[in-house]
Design a protein that fits this description.
The chain is built from 28 helices and eleven strands. By secondary structure, it is of the alpha+beta class. The strands form three sheets. The protein has a five-stranded mixed beta sheet with strand order 6-8-9-11-10. A four-stranded antiparallel beta sheet has the order 1-4-2-3, with helices on both faces. Strands 5-7 form a two-stranded antiparallel sheet.
């Protein structure tokens, strides 16, 4: 077996060496192409067209320099001080340039009349390159013309468009364009073939160097392709059992070592080092002083260099590939930090270094826990500046140490960033937990639960918690005082002015008519009107007293066992005539079984009746009304839905207030107290009434909690404490009521 394994490893090693050798040879075969591309790039850099395109911005700036020399809008010393080193200065050495007026007369007179004639002559063969800029009397660029015997028409057209863009950029900047406003002139530049050649040679700063090699497609593309081939070989060769060498001892290195070598190989790029060797090999300077023998020696040196580069890459990837094969075991067995941490946490017998490190670790951990707890309980009122100074100082010291490592400080900074992230995440989570505790207390306070104590350690928020306790105490005192004052107030007069005046006015009017009327039929009709209006006034006054008592919390509640299902059926039967008169179709969805609750049956009946009567008044005729009762774990939910006959444009938050009605014109009978009474009676039984609308859909949701039903003896004691007058109106056995047929 050992012999077979060795033979298998030998075959795998041979295949890998052949692969690396092939990659190295392939890379070396590109040297000729790399050299040719560098020479071609250098030749391109000296071509006319490239240099002419580079002139665009310089000529646009030169327009303002030349015009200012004529117009003198800005002092020449200021121009020299601010713009004395423009690239345009180089162009002036090789180009003829002149400013002409609208009549074609030269203004600067810095060239001879013959040269000025050549400049102003269009389509002249004298110049290899000629550019003409024409400015209008308003200071706008009217046109650009580029020609010359060195340019093709397509090239001239492209230069004109490019120069036009450059002029716009320069004109909109705050640079040299601020020295003058060019108006009503033509500025012309011209370069002869000799001057253009000299300018291109002087302007060309391209020199092939190591970076030119690195960015050469022949080098970079080939290098990356061969790196990809090497990586794929490292990943796929172990899939062939006979070629798998990943279990050799050389590949059993810790994760940090392989990752560090791979990272360093990327940084030094194996490209700073290899590209420099390639550059010197191409230039023949790799082995200076050895004459013709240097070329022969350079071949094996380059071959070994590329074998090393791709070999290191293959070794790193193969070593890291064990992550896939070993999975979780890899991080337990080949993580250097984990091994070191395990040695510190669990030192072996006879390992004094491990024990010493363990003692140091425990002390550091205790110290950090103390500092962390201090941060959680920081007094931001008194200790904030001192704590911030400590944190900034510690951070400054660490970063100063990192800077001392120069390039390798990146790794330390990376580790520091990871540890800082973990620390901040834990710190923020702890703060969030304590904040949630504080928020729970504030929510209880906001919900009006002023008797629930605010407790718990909220760390950094302890001072705020103390303030909340003071607020809770102050709120409770203010609420008690407000409740006491509210019971002493009466708001009946201001709220009932309109609703009392209407029936009362009718009663007075018909009483006067009745006094003087002799016709018995009309007198009988007047009496019927008086009776109806008086009954209307009686109902309104009764509703007023009901809502007044509910608002002042002076209503006596008579709780007893009530079957809420049968109670709803009875309400439906009692109001059946109103439902039919309104031409509505009620759809009831009630549980088949009884739902016994601890309620005031009379108040609950009034809630349901008010809502159903409200539906009969405002629902659209010949529509369906859906009433549903749902029993939940701790409550009962009643939903009533109907389609409104009129547009629902009221505020749903205000519709349950006293004297607020859906029809603002008050065309329907009613006191405007029905929903307010229903809401008050629901709240007196610790429930809620919520009104919502969606388009023309009106929905009322009632939630009544399932209160704990007291024992028989406790119910008798409660009955004795209730007001005797109110007991007369109470049903003696509300669970035995008529059922509504399905």
């Amino acid at each position: 077996m050992d012999t077979k394994s060795k033979n298998s490893h030998r075959l795998g090693v041979i295949v890998v060496l052949l692969l690396l050798a092939a990659c190295s040879v392939t890379m070396m075969l590109q040297y000729t192409t790399i050299k040719a591309s560098l020479e071609a790039e250098e030749e391109v850099q000296t071509q006319y067209i490239n240099n002419l395109y580079e002139m665009g911005n310089d000529l646009a700036e030169g327009n303002y320099i030349l015009y200012n020399e004529y117009a003198k809008e800005t002092d020449s010393s200021v121009v020299l001080e601010e713009y004395g080193k423009l690239s345009f200065d180089l162009i002036r050495k090789y180009a003829d340039c002149e400013v002409f007026d609208s009549e074609g007369e030269p203004l600067l007179k810095k060239v001879s009349s013959t040269t000025a004639g050549y400049l102003s002559e269009e389509d002249s063969d004298y110049y290899a390159f000629r550019a003409e800029y024409t400015f209008s009397s308003t200071g706008e660029l009217a046109g650009i013309q580029v020609d010359g015997n060195a340019l093709e028409p397509e090239q001239a057209y492209g230069l004109e468009n490019y120069f036009l863009d450059q002029c716009g950029m320069v004109a909109n900047s705050y640079g040299v364009s601020s020295i003058a406003v060019i108006t009503d002139v033509t500025i012309i530049y011209g370069m002869t073939e000799g001057n253009l050649d000299a300018y291109c040679e002087a302007n060309s700063s391209y020199v092939a160097d190591i970076s030119s090699v690195r960015w050469s497609p022949a080098y970079s593309d080939t290098y990356l392709l061969l790196c990809f081939v090497t990586v794929m070989a490292a990943l796929l060769l172990p899939c062939v059992k006979r070629l798998d060498i990943s279990d050799l001892h050389i590949f059993r290195v810790d994760f940090e070592i392989a990752a560090l070598v791979l990272f360093l190989g990327y940084i030094t790029e194996s490209v700073i080092f290899p590209s420099e060797m390639v550059y010197e090999t191409i230039n023949g300077t790799l082995l200076p002083g050895m004459g013709h023998g240097a070329e022969i020696i350079a071949i094996p040196v380059n071959f070994l260099m590329w074998m090393f580069v791709y070999g290191v890459l293959f070794w790193c990837v193969t070593s890291l590939r064990a992550v896939v094969r070993m999975r979780g075991a890899y991080w337990r067995e080949r993580l250097l930090i984990r091994k070191l941490f395990h040695r510190i946490r669990h030192p072996k017998e006879g390992d004094p270094v491990g024990k010493k490190l363990n003692d140091i670790f425990r002390k550091v951990r205790n110290f950090l826990e103390q500092q962390y707890d201090a941060l959680l309980h920081l007094d931001i009122q008194n200790q904030a500046n001192r704590t911030i100074f400590k944190i900034v100082a510690a951070n400054f010291i660490f970063l100063m140490i990192v800077c001392c490592f120069w390039f390798f400080g990146i790794f330390a900074l990376l580790i520091y960033s990871i540890l800082l992230f973990l620390f901040l995440r834990k710190y923020v989570r702890d703060l969030q937990e304590k904040y949630r505790m504080l928020l729970q207390s504030t929510n209880q306070l906001a919900a009006g639960r002023l008797d629930i104590p605010i407790e718990g350690d909220v760390g950094l928020f302890n001072p705020l918690q103390e303030e909340l306790k003071k607020i809770q105490k102050g709120f409770k005192k203010a609420v008690d005082e407000e409740v006491k004052n509210e019971r002493m107030k009466t708001e009946l007069v201001t709220n009932v002015s309109h609703d009392l005046r209407t029936p009362l006015t009718a009663i007075i009017t018909y009483t006067d008519l009745l006094k003087n009327e002799k016709d018995e039929e009309k007198r009988k009709e007047y009496v019927e009107v008086l009776e109806r209006k008086s009954l209307r006034l009686k109902v309104l006054i009764e509703d007023l007293f009901e809502i007044s008592k509910a608002a002042s919390k002076s209503v006596s509640m008579h709780f007893m066992k009530v079957d809420i299902v049968n109670l709803m059926k009875e309400v439906g039967l009692e109001n059946d005539s109103k439902i039919k008169a309104a031409n509505l179709e009620f759809r009831w969805k009630l549980p088949e079984q009884k739902v016994i609750m601890w309620l005031d049956s009379q108040k609950t009946y009034r809630i349901l009746e008010n809502l159903i009567v409200n539906i009969t008044k405002y629902a659209m005729p010949h529509t369906r009304v859906y009433i549903e009762l749902t029993e939940q774990e701790n409550s009962v939910h009643i939903s009533m839905k109907n389609v409104s006959a009129t547009e629902l444009n009221f505020n749903t938050d205000e519709i349950t207030d006293r004297f607020v009605r859906g029809d603002s014109s008050r065309n329907t009978e009613g006191s405007g107290l029905g929903l307010a009474i229903a809401k008050s009676f629901a709240e007196l039984q610790h429930g809620t009434l919520k009104i919502s609308t969606e388009a023309d859909l009106f929905k009322a949701d009632i939630t009544l909690p399932k209160l704990e039903i007291p024992a028989e003896e406790e119910r008798q004691d409660l009955q004795e404490l209730q007001d005797l007058p109110d007991q007369q109106d109470q049903q003696e056995n509300p669970t035995e009521i008529r059922g509504l047929p399905e």
